[in-house]
Known about the structure:
single chain, mainly beta, Lipocalin, 1 helix, 50% strand, globular
Amino acid sequence: MGTIALLIMALAAQTAPAPPSGPPPATLCHTAQHGQFDFWVGQWDVYRADTNKLVAHSLIEKLYNGCAVRENWMPLGGTGGGSLNSYRPASKQWEQYWTDSGNNLNVYIGGLQDSKMVLTGVSHSANGADSPARMVYEKLPDGSVTQTGYTSSDSGKTWQLSYKLVYRHAAQH
Length: 173
């Protein structure tokens, strides 16, 4: 009986997983860089900057132990969608993946530039057309956030305004 118990203990010791290396998961993404996009986190009413018309609601959450920022875009009309944003320490950049109910996919990379989050990438439309795209997020003194979108017809050499939105904290219901 003692030999079998020793054999079982020896096998269990051989198959035990190695302890994780590096910081514990609870603190892995609690860095200044991972907090750079926190100004966008919240529950928002979203308005067109040019008309001040309410166009959407948006819920931006800090998730997965602080390793990601996720947007749930809920327009009053049109297609809904969302993005997943994550800071990548190896490249020292943020990455954003956006998809929507129209089967479009946008992929961006970038980071903070003069206190603004600037993300540049490619918009892949459902019909197969690809185009350069850029977004700039800026926190305003009143706590609102602007998101300005740009497109380019010359492979990103110059940028044209596509839209400008203002995220205002949603009224408490």
